[in-house]
Amino acid sequence: LSRGVRALLLDHNRVRALPPGAFVGAGTLLRLDLRENGLRWVHARAFWSLGALQQLDLSDNLLEALAPGTFSPLRALRSLSLAGNRLARLEPAALGALPLLRALSLRDNQLSALAPGLLAGLPALHALHLRGNPWTCGCALRPLCSWLRRHPRPAPEAETLLCVLPGRPSLSPLTAFTDAAFSHCSQPLGPWDLAVVYVLGPVSFLASLAACLALGSALTACRTRRSRAGVLSRLRPSARDPGPPA
């Protein structure tokens, strides 16, 4: 690519995969269009040289999964479209923290829920498109429903989003689910809770192990003393035994 190129339009081609460093030397790109390429695989380091990129369109491809850190280098990204793929799950680590992202399209995928924390790293999100996914009514939908209630403006289509009740043919609007509807679901651990678990867990284990070892040592010592006392009592002459003959 020539230096100074701002837009690269590769839509409607046959780009099946993006290897590591696929765009090395294209650090000035602001827009990258990869729509309708039959794209199946994107390496986690495919976009590493695109720190200035603002618009990325990966829509209408065959992506089923994205590796952790795929979009982490794109700190200037403002618009990302993953619409029309085969994504059944999107991990928070794949998106990472995109502080300037304003538009995210996840339309027409295979998403049944959004992973907890997926949208937490998108503080500037202004437009979120979610239609065309087989949302499943259940505890896994709690993070998305909670986010939609707190951010009604970024998702104007929220009123039209429906989820399927497992084992039932009926549909329910996502906006009908309040916090009370998820009261039977276990609350996911927060960062502080996880820190307590990770810190106190090993300490408690080691303390329990030390206590067990100490108790075992005490019991062993007690049994040893009792055994020695029994042996000595058998060896010691009884007071009733007659002395040796004169």
Automatic annotation (TrEMBL):
InterPro entries: Cys-rich_flank_reg_C, KCNMA1_auxiliary, Leu-rich_rpt, Leu-rich_rpt_typical-subtyp, LRR_dom_sf. This is Leucine rich repeat containing 26. It is found in: Cell membrane. It comes from the Eukaryota. Keywords: Cell membrane, Disulfide bond, Ion channel, Ion transport, Leucine-rich repeat, Membrane, Repeat, Signal, Transmembrane, Transmembrane helix, Transport. Residues 133-186 form the LRRCT domain. It is a single-pass membrane protein. GO terms for cellular component: voltage-gated potassium channel complex. One of its GO terms (molecular function) is transmembrane transporter binding. The lineage of its organism: Eukaryota, Metazoa, Chordata, Craniata, Vertebrata. The keyword Endoplasmic reticulum does not apply. Interacts with KCNMA1.
